[in-house]
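ERR on first pass: missing label on line 2. Operator R.T. fixed the label and resubmitted. Corrected input:
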Amino acid sequence: MNTLVIAEHDNSQLKPATLNTVGAATKLDGEIHILVAGENCDTVIQSAAKITGITKVLAVDSENYTHALAENMALLVTEIADNYSHILTPATTTGKNFMPRIAALLDVAQISDITGIESIDTFIRPVYAGNALATVKSSDSIKLITVRGTAFEPAITDNNNAEIQTIESGDNFAQSQFESHQLTLSERPELTSAQVVISGGRGMGNGENFALLEAIADKLNGAIGASRAAVDAGYVPNDYQVGQTGKIVAPDLYIAVGISGAIQHLAGMKESKVIVAINKDEDAPIFQVADYGLVADLFDVLPELTELL
Amino acid sequence: MKILVAVKRVVDYNVKIRVNADNSAVDLANVKMSINPFDEIAVEEAIRIKEANKADEIIVVSIGPKENQETIRSALALGADRGLLMQTDEETQPLAVAKILKYVVEAESPDLVILGKQAIDDDSNQTGQMLSALMNWPQGTFASKIDLMDNEVNVTREIDGGLETIRLKLPAVITTDLRLNEPRYAKLPNIMKAKKKPLDIQQVSETGIDIKPRLTTIKVTEPAQRSAGIKVSSVTELVEKLRNEAKVI
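pass 2 clean. output:
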């Protein structure tokens, strides 16, 4: 049987996590199809057809999918689900929103946020904020899975030329509608796929001081993250949060500044290749996972670091 | 207007859990248990809606063994009106929980169901969405703001790119994110009063709902531990190490 990957995109670009999800799908059997549901999303459809490993793109262009509302996505996917043994989507806020709805309509379990594939029915997923790894076997006929992007290599986008099949739009679920959004605009790389992430915690003191991190991020082409404490305090928007219930990152270099290192934060960054911690409290738990620790006042250190990079 | 809030009893968020010796599960013996933090936010939100005179009754439901009565009592101490324990000693996975909640929703006919977006033990993040699907209701997940109107609700959601606001017709299911509110602490007199609030108990086994797990846990292991590295004494040394040793810049 074949696998369906539900693409995440913003109607103009595929989100990088989609490629990691296709990467996970290549560890299963059968062909891999990709569903692109959106509005005026032709460039996304074209780029999906170029992903190595994809044999077919299912394309649906309708105002029902402009904002990937869970209700409409679920009505669409349940129509085509029977053709697949596995349905995968990135474990992002979009996938986490619609995937369980599809699972319930199909009367199957969802396997959330997998980090490993043992076989076609057995998967590894973190539980308890990543402090334990559960290996679970699914008895359902269709496996609905959300994939942790950082755990799988991305599929490459070369000159593949998969067949594009236009499918009919599903019904519109009238009881919910999109009103507005406030997106954080940034020229920086996306947090979950950046090679370098520099995060600030409560120790930053206020939002203005994040400019000190930006100066470093500029030099390293990095993304900016934050601990829950910094977001709760209003220093930075919610989408900066790294942790158990925020974003999961695994860059080559993670620099934690003024972050004590609660287990909920570590859950979101401990798979990073190299971790640097800068904190004036030498007993901060963050130092227990850091490759390089610097016990110092961040306000002394950050300007000097910017200078030396 | 009636609000139903679902609460789960989980290992307290401050506990550093251990995997048991035979790698079959997380060791829960003698571990402090608490209300799931996201569910506490759900209870608080329902109370605030009631305090704003937009709701007249808050029912708290929990699913699990008899010990869950404590979890329900803690929600009653915050200000919920009455409790319901759907009692079972069996393992209940999100789909089964959603089915049991559907049964409760059909019996209670709330206008709004509020749940935490995920439980901090299994980190599934599924139940609210599943309940919403089974009821064929709209869903507002990861809410950081809830604006209740007569027959509709505006939900501001925390999404990867920022915030999104959607409008749902009632009845609806909402799941809470961290910044929706900061739950109050229960005051001693309210803890005493909560002991007298009604708490019904129903056996899940008597409902005929199929709660058989669809996922079998083969094993549970501890992740590879990261070991602490070295302390550097200066920024110069740090940059030198990152360049020449770690080779990441």
